[in-house]
Amino acid sequence: MFILGLQGSPRKNGNTSILLASFLTEAERLGARTYNLEVTSKRITPCQECGTCEREGFCSISDDMEEIYPLLWKADIIVMVTPVFFYGAPAQLKALIDRSQTLWARRYIHKLTDPGRKWRHGFLLALGATRGKNLFEGIILTAKYFFDAVGAGFDGSLTYRQIERPGDIAKHPTALTEVKEKTRLLIEPLLNKKKILFVCRENACRSQMASAFAQYYAGDRIEAESAGSQPASGINMPMVEVMKEKGIDMAFRRTKSIEDVLDYMKPDSIISMGCGEECPYIPGVPIHDWNLHDPSDKPINFMREVRDEIEERVKTLVSSKNQEAES
Q1: 190, 207, 227: which is the final residue of a domain?
Q2: Which residues of the chain have pLDDT under 70?
Q3: Are residues 89 and 220 in the same domain?
Q4: What is the value of pTM for the model shown?
């Protein structure tokens, strides 16, 4: 499980940092991987409203959003932590939110499905210096539609008024306890998913398709990862195109080594696409070999045939896991 924290304040080590640290520390204690993204440390150009994302499905601006898009889609839970500036988000965080229009366009205009949206959660932690009745209305509405754009359900918010001086949030009588409790409520239902690791040589094609289909058909019932014994530098673009024909968006996926995945995940089972002796051995973890031909550098119709075979095998796998869970 991967938790992405978006720290939106331009103030270093301030009250929002304390809130986010409380959330992520509790998440790590429960067994989750976490990443604290300091938004102000990233080079994020404001949206130019050029329309490229709506026409082409990607953003024409080259900056640090290229590394942020994959993180947003990798996350099981996204927690946005921010102060309120004039009833909204600070400029740096707002730039990230606006640039997420690319992900909105891929879903709503290009009709592509990110499988992670079936279980991804979004949560807001916000604070403000005043005590006005409507202080958080703007940021809550912004967060709700941001999470929808990036494929996360909005699981609500915790908001705190009259937090202005450094360290004020640590003195709040209930804030840190409430944050830890909410962390547990969000994470605990996701902890007991069956973990399946799909592996192939390059993690550029077959194992990527298998993990995506598993995520698509199993939703929050299975945690599916993919990896390669000799990972390529990037995913196979014809594979991206044939998965697009199924309505599944693979654009922001990255290749990973088996060793990297095993550093943070102990799978309940490993399914090889046909990497043979290069598959990892983990005591007590069964390995199944689907022995699928590698469609890389083959005609596109062969890629489609392998895609369809993987899809059918994954459907059978998910059905069997569902039956095991019910028995």
Answers
A1: 190
A2: 275-281, 323, 325-327
A3: no
A4: 0.90
201 and 316 both lie in a single domain? yes
Give start and end residues of each alpha helix (H) in 58-174: 65-74, 91-99, 101-108, 137-149, 168-171
Q: Determine the pLDDT at residue 43.
A: 97
pLDDT, position 249: 94
Looking at residue 221, its pLDDT comes to 86
State the CB neighbour count (10 A cutoff) for residue 109.
Answer: 12
Verify that 68 and 208 share a domain, yes or no: no
Distance between CA atoms of 325 and 327, rounded to whole angstroms?
Answer: 6
| Cα separations in angstroms, 10 against 82, 93, 310, 326 | 9, 9, 46, 49
All residues at 6 or more sequence positions from 49 whose CB lies less than 8 Å from its CB, including other chains:
none
CB 321 within 8 A of CB 222: yes
Determine the structural domain holding residue 60 and report its residue range.
2-190
> How far apart, in Å, are the Cα atoms of 262 and each of 142, 196, 205, 258, 285?
37, 11, 20, 6, 12
What pLDDT, on the 0 to 100 scale, is given for residue 119? 84
- pLDDT for residue 131: 87
Spatial separation of the C-alpha atoms in residues 279 and 285, rounded to whole Å: 12
325: Cβ contacts below 8 Å, ≥ 6 apart = 194, 221
Would you say the C-alpha torsion 244, 223, 294, 205 has a positive or negative sign?
positive
pLDDT at site 235: 95
Residue 134: what pLDDT? 94
